[in-house]
Amino acid sequence: MIEDHSLPETVEIRAFGQRLQLLAPKLAFLRQDSLWRLKTHYGPAMAARSLEPQGLAIDIGAGFGAFALPFALAYPGWTVLAFEPDPLAFAALARNAARLGAANLIALPLAVGPDAALDDPEAVGAALGEALYAEPGAAETLARLLPRQAFARHSTDHGFMQPGLPPDAAFHEALFPTLPVSLLTDLAPHLLKITAPQMETPVFEALRDVPVDHLLGERWSHVDWALVCGEHRPGRREAWLPLTGPGLLVLRHTPGPRRRGLDVVVALYNQAAYVQDCVAALVAQDCEDLRVIVVDDGSTDDSLALLQAAFGHHPRVTLLSKANGGCASARNYGRMQSDASHIAFVDADDLPGPDLFPGLLELARQTGAEIVQGGYHLFEGASTIASVESREAMVIQAQCHRLGAHSCHLLPAWWLISGQPTIWRRVYRRDFLDNRRLWFPEHIRAFNDQIFQLLTLQAVDNVPMLDGVSYGYRQHPGQDIRQKDERHFYSLEMFRMALRRGLTEGWHDFQPLLRSFVNTVNWVTEGLRPDLLPAFLQGTAELWVMAGKVQPQPAPEDVDFSHPDLAALIAEARARLDDLPQSTAYVFLDSLQWQVPMVRAPWS
């Protein structure tokens, strides 16, 4: 028996405060696809929006009305212009609108496609205007006046179609009356919902100078963020536009007080030999939305004078100076001076690679992710020593996502936590940092990257990584990490701070933090000055045992502290505390070995 697809079925819709029974085509794909988008895309996007009492909404690819009908009934002051070329879906849409009395919904049996010559532009314009006022017969007149353009329509999933000829045997050619995309400009919608494969960029090109307030839908092709939501696009441009597929890329924008761009904060202290190259590399990157904030933290060399001579009048460089307070203080100060929606922190002696930060800003905008990152490489002089991109690629399990000319992958945050702190090759969403109260602790005068990495990565699930871009991490004798002095004791205090914060915030998993602690201790003990090593090992043992009194730890056989003396010191510290109960109070205790000023004291 051949199934009659012309007979509609009834589906229940719950959206925008409405509970509706709608007729839908019997083809399962047409029903399920619309319901899935409503649940995963349109419902969540609209839940966070505040609409004006009146406006014009355009729904391109309305289907049987899963979005357009509950929207029209929830916002009776709005006019909803619903385009749907598929005959079965349009028939259901029209019947649903009539049955529910949605007088403010105008259903048009049209596709929206590439621009084409019109035989009678004036008649088309008149018919379009009549359709907006729901004049009887206007929709049919408009369909007769418009050219019939070719679309590639999927042979089984009939709801999927795109402009042009069939790309393969899974598609066949279908002709539909088509509204040229340029006519969307005349309609001047306040809200656009789009389901139009491969037509996304032409649609947004047509609306680039129209004051659109709300943009939502799904994309089948890459669309530049600036085209949709750039600084000079009129309207609020509140956007939620996921890319079809696994759900990684969501081009999103929420209007706010901050500039739609990226500020790169450069913390500077006595880096006259390198800082000019760093700033030059940043401003050479072709991106008007990228600005550089250099914070001189009381340098005693001529670093600031060199920058003033080279970049004092550069429109995208801001030079600030403050009393010495440490790198954390400089980074926080630069952040407080920033007015951008995204922020990054780089070291003055490093060399960001070409296209790194413009690419990361676009990735951040396309994904809506709290943190995005690129690769990095170690270099000394003019020679690259090592690249870590291949190592990170080994742990990537998710598929590759295309991002225009680039591609990206997802890295699990738990895995990044245990690695080297690399905050300088990352871009952060400013509202994420502000809402989570994530700052650099200013009493930590060295290696504050570590706690910032621990706390930011603990707050996310995954980090999108842009392929093909890299940050140059310079190796030279003056680096903090090469001094192997008492500043390494800051790591113990930072892990205690992270553990305390995790208990306060109720983290569900402390294992990545503990793994990071083990890796850090192993790295420090490999090269710490011999006179400091006993105190560091003692402090490590005390902190590890106290952490075990707060949270379950890995089994001893799974803990690979590399220094041979640590096992005995941990056993000794544990024996002293065996009779005491488990308690969160331990992370509020202190030890001489956890505080750098006490390690430096002459009596220590």
TrEMBL record:
<dbReference type="Pfam" id="PF00535">
    <property type="entry name" value="Glycos_transf_2"/>
</dbReference>
<dbReference type="GO" id="GO:0008168">
    <property type="term" value="F:methyltransferase activity"/>
</dbReference>
<protein>
    <submittedName>
        <fullName>FkbM family methyltransferase</fullName>
    </submittedName>
</protein>
<dbReference type="InterPro" id="IPR050834">
    <property type="entry name" value="Glycosyltransf_2"/>
</dbReference>
<dbReference type="InterPro" id="IPR029063">
    <property type="entry name" value="SAM-dependent_MTases_sf"/>
</dbReference>
<feature type="domain" description="Glycosyltransferase 2-like">
    <location>
        <begin position="264"/>
        <end position="388"/>
    </location>
</feature>
<dbReference type="InterPro" id="IPR001173">
    <property type="entry name" value="Glyco_trans_2-like"/>
</dbReference>
<dbReference type="InterPro" id="IPR029044">
    <property type="entry name" value="Nucleotide-diphossugar_trans"/>
</dbReference>
<dbReference type="GO" id="GO:0032259">
    <property type="term" value="P:methylation"/>
</dbReference>
<keyword id="KW-0808">Transferase</keyword>
<keyword id="KW-0489">Methyltransferase</keyword>
<dbReference type="InterPro" id="IPR006342">
    <property type="entry name" value="FkbM_mtfrase"/>
</dbReference>
